[in-house]
Amino acid sequence: MTGANLLLMMRCPEVPIQTSIALYLSHKLTKLGFDVTVAGTVAASKLLKVSDSDGYYVKKLVDLDKTIVDIIEKRTDFDICFAFMHNDAGMTYATTVSAISQTKMYSIVFGRNAEALAETIEFDCEKIVAQDVHNPVRLKNKLDKVMEEIMK
Amino acid sequence: MSCIEQMKYTIHLEKTSFKDAREYIEENSDEVYYVSPGYKIFKDYYIIGIPPVVVGAKGNALIFTYTKPCHGSFVLSIDDEDSVKEINRLRESGEQKEPASLKRSKLSESSKVSPASYQDMWKKEDLES
Predict the structure, then answer these.
(1) Is the predicted pLDDT of residue A121 greater than 70, yes or no?
(2) A38, A76, B16, B123: most buried, per Cβ within 10 A?
(3) Global pTM?
C-alpha cells in the first residue's frame, strides 16, 4: 500500500482530540510512505496551520468542500480515506464520500456519543471508535493497530 | 462557500439529523425525487447526504437538504426562476419519484422551525465551520 493516495477528512473541530490525531496520523502515514492529503473545514484547517506552522506534520492541506466537489467531478480520488466524525453531520459527509468515491473508508468515530454514532453508519467501512473528547491516547492506540494492519 | 449562501432561501428545519431532514422533505413536498449524494443543483451546490438523498418540489419551490459540518443538516427551499428550472430538470431526468401513498408520519412539531431569512441565519455564524 506504500505510495497510496490517502485522505484525512477532518470535520468540525469542536472535539479537541481531532486536531492532535490528525497531526499524528498525517505525520505517521507520511513516514510510512503514503501520499497524505488533509482536508478540513475553515476552522479545523486554521487549528492545524497554527499547530503546524512550518508544515512539518501536514504536507498537503486542502478545503474539505472543494475536495468533495473535485471527487464528484472526477478531478481527484483517493485509495484510502480516514474520515473523522463526532456528530451526524460528520457521518453524513463520510457517507457522501463513500458514495462518490472508490476509496477504502476508515471511520474515526470519537466524542461523547461515539458508540451511538458508530451504530448509525450504513456504508462499508472499518470503524475505529473511542468515546473520548480530550484524551487522544486510546484513539491513537487503536489507530496504531489499524496502521499496522494496513502495512501488512 | 456555495452559491446557496448567496441566494434567497427559506429555512424550514435547522440543526437536525440528515434523516429527520429527509423525512421533513418527504412529508412536506408535492413531489419527491431521489438523487445520488453529490447531485448538483443551482450553480454549484452538490448535495451532501446519506442515500436516499431526497429533493422535493412544492409549487415552484425546490426543497432540499443542506448539511454544514458544525451545525448539522438544514432543510431549505428556494422559490425563484432557477428553482423552476431545477424542478423541470428533475421531472425530465426521470429521477425516482416516490408515490404520495408511501409518505411517512409527520415529524413532531418541536423539531420544526419557523421560516427565517437567510441573512438572519448566517450572519451570526460567520461561516467559521
Answers:
(1) yes
(2) A38
(3) 0.86
